[in-house]
Amino acid sequence: LQHSGELPALPKAACHIMAVIEDPSTTATKLEHALAMDQALTAKVLRIANSPFYGAVREITTVSEAIVRLGFVAIRNWTLVTAARSVFLSPGAGLLYQKIWRQSVMSAMAGQLVAKAVGRSNPDTVFIGGLMQNIGQLVLARSNPELFQEILEDSSERGLPYHVVEHGRLGFDHGELGAQLIKEWNLSPELEGAVRWHHRFDHPGAESCRVAAMISLGEEIALTTSGHEENPEDAAHTTAEGEEFISEAAKYLELDVATVDELKAKAAELKIDPHFFS
């Protein structure tokens, strides 16, 4: 972790908006005024509010209407997305960085879909975990691009998941880097534990195991719907013995194959909206 360099700080505008949202006395008017200080974020919130992901049936044109449609938690989430993008994706960022970023946002939205499917009362909170679980890859790519590329190539050549090669080369994986960033950004102790253990949620020492499994399944769904599976065998519907395949995360959450396939179909539909990734 020390070799990854100084972890980046959130932009001040994003910190202010998130502080306003976390304040129990905040009103929609206060949030509207806070958003008005950042025109780019205001435009982003309006575009997101008009997307099919949030059930848009009529176009809204004002921030106050967007706040009603999205709610405080969703606006906090997309504020963090916008802030994280500004931190990690400088203008002209390479295709690999953009791919990781898109995968992070897809994992965030897929994780939220999983949380809804298992009946979590606040599925929006899992969104941040889905976003941050992959941010660790960008931290490593930013601080040590050559090592990051070596791990990618090693993973591809050996047919091993990226996080397994990370552990072998570094002694930690991108989940631990993401968890460290969550701690630095003062987000949520539950999410910190879930992101840290999302590839090892069944470990005896794991924390926030259920949320970790939601994040893991969200990442799996995002990978398979984008056509970039970490392990192509995981995308198959049957095992070598002819039985239906179900991932460990889906088993842990007690979701059957039909439900996972339905979640994948919903996630695939989300890719058509460019506003999620820009």
Architecture overview:
The structure is a single chain. The chain is mainly α and about 280 residues long. The protein is built from 14 helices and no strands. The chain has helices at about 10-20, 30-35, 40-50, 65-70, 70-90, 95-115, 125-145, 145-160, 160-170, 175-185, 190-195, 210-225, 250, 255-270. Helix 1 (about 10-20) runs antiparallel to helix 5 (about 70-90). It is globular. The two termini are about 30 Å apart.
Q: Count of DSSP E strands?
A: 0
The portion of residues forming beta strands comes to: under 5%
Low-confidence stretches: 229-243
What does the radius of gyration come to?
A: 18 Å
Average of per-residue pLDDT values: 82
Element order: H for helix, E for strand: HHHHHHHHHHHHHH
What proportion of the residues is helical, as a percent range? 55-70%
What's the end-to-end separation, in Å? 29 Å
Q: What oligomeric arrangement do these chains adopt? A: single chain
Which word captures the global form?
A: globular
The computed structural class is mainly alpha
How many alpha or pi helices? 14
Sheet with most strands: none
Descriptive tags:
mainly alpha; 14 helices
Short description:
The protein is mainly α and 278 residues long. It contains 14 helices and no strands. The two termini are 29 Å apart.
